[in-house]
Design goal:
Helix content: 55-70%
Structural class: mainly alpha
Number of domains: 2
């Protein structure tokens, strides 16, 4: 269960660079077999090098990626120079960004609304990131998920490497290639998200919270690391970037933990997945079988008290991550804060809905009614306009 759901099918074409005397043009052609082989050789080389490096686990994965992103953000605040710089054929980028905006608007309406307060360049870049994440998630959770193999994810990663080189495969990839030439996006969180999809192919249980934390980072925290360089930092802020990035990662973790708690029954029944840590289930005297069948007291037919106590513990932890995230939201550029505050407020309300359902997340889906969502938007906008310290105080009141 990753952070997004449905995917839009992309046209199978790539951008081939055709040299001219003064610049590089691009046009839509068929797949480049030579490029595919180059990317395959590059991936195998990386795998060989990985044999001699420490394998990171749990929170180490997130920590390593965060510092890579911070270093690039500080060194190249205006984006990276692509190995194969290019100009685009007339209309290509406009078409690409417009399509990304349409997809974002269709599947993430509230979030899309928030991007309207950003600068046009910021909004378009966020749409490009969103669409890539959505397409990636759909590989393992979409309608064709049963046909996805590790090799398919390897090919998707080869396409990622290519678009970061300046060689996008299709019209949707083109928007992300252009984005990374304008904003300091590091490739590491994109790679990590693909590894999160690999986890979903082979892993349906998590023994400890440290294992689950790594999964939450790979499928949700990565989005924070992709988005922060686009959203930017408050102009008056002169401190280190670390608290800005840590707050964003906390929000990613909080959102994914909320997804997991909301979808316990759906994941168990439809996918045979249990994301909540097994050692914590054991601590509350709960077995895997009970999670798969639903925990209802035989005498009353209501939720078992053990599950109720277990969920109270899980919700408290998720809320703490939301609180940790609040401290850094208003360190972001003012034009980018509203969608972040909206996501924080709305997702936290899902936890309230789980409680209102008496912790029955086996057969009842916790959701935030539309009227409550819209009622929350002015509050999010108000907090986005306040200085960081005042917004945090208001958020806790």
């Amino acid at each position: 269960m990753a952070a997004t759901s449905h995917v839009m099918k992309a046209r199978n074409a790539k951008f081939l660079r055709v040299k001219s005397t003064s610049h590089v043009r691009c046009t839509l052609v068929g797949p480049d077999k030579k490029l595919a082989q180059q990317q395959q050789n590059k991936r195998l080389s990386l795998q060989d090098n990985a044999k001699f490096t420490k394998i990171l686990k749990g929170k180490e994965v997130e920590e390593a990626a965060m510092w890579k992103c911070i270093e690039l953000h500080e060194r190249c605040p205006n984006g990276i120079v692509l190995p194969y710089p290019m100009t685009w054929a007339p209309g290509v980028l406009e078409t690409s960004y417009n399509r990304c905006g349409e997809i974002t608007s269709e599947y993430a309406k509230t979030f899309y609304l928030g991007t309207q307060l950003m600068t046009p360049e910021q909004a378009r870049a966020i749409w490009a990131v969103y669409v890539w994440c959505r397409r990636t998630d759909e590989l393992v959770d979409g309608p064709n998920a049963s046909k996805i193999t590790p090799k398919a994810l390897d090919r998707w990663e080869e396409r990622l490497e290519a678009l970061f080189d300046g060689r996008p495969y299709d019209v949707l990839d083109a928007a992300l290639t252009d984005t990374i030439s304008r904003f300091p996006l590091h490739i590491q969180p994109f790679r990590d998200m693909i590894d999160g999809m690999r986890m979903d192919l082979v892993k349906s249980r998590y023994e400890t919270f440290d294992e689950l934390y790594e999964y939450c980072y790979r499928v949700a925290g990565t989005v924070a690391l992709m988005s922060n360089p686009v959203m930017g930092v408050e102009k008056s802020y002169t401190g280190p970037l670390e608290p800005v990035y840590r707050a964003a990662l906390a929000l990613g973790t909080a959102n994914q933990l909320t997804n997991i708690l909301r979808d316990v029954g759906e994941d168990a029944n439809e996918r045979n997945r249990i994301y909540v840590p097994l050692d914590e289930l054991d601590r509350f005297g709960i077995s895997e079988k009970e999670v798969l069948t639903g925990m209802y007291a035989a005498s009353t037919g209501r939720i078992d008290d053990r599950w109720r106590r277990f969920m109270q513990f899980q919700i408290a932890r998720a809320r703490q991550y939301f609180t940790d995230a609040e401290a850094g939201v208003n360190l972001l550029d003012q034009q980018a804060r509203w969608p972040v505050w909206s996501a924080l407020i709305l997702y936290r309300q899902i936890l309230d809905a789980v409680e209102r359902n008496d912790y029955d997340n086996f057969t009842r889906r916790a959701y935030v009614p539309k009227w409550r969502k819209f009622a929350s938007l002015p509050t999010a906008l108000l907090r986005a306009q306040l200085p960081g310290s005042m917004a945090s105080i208001l958020a806790q009141s």
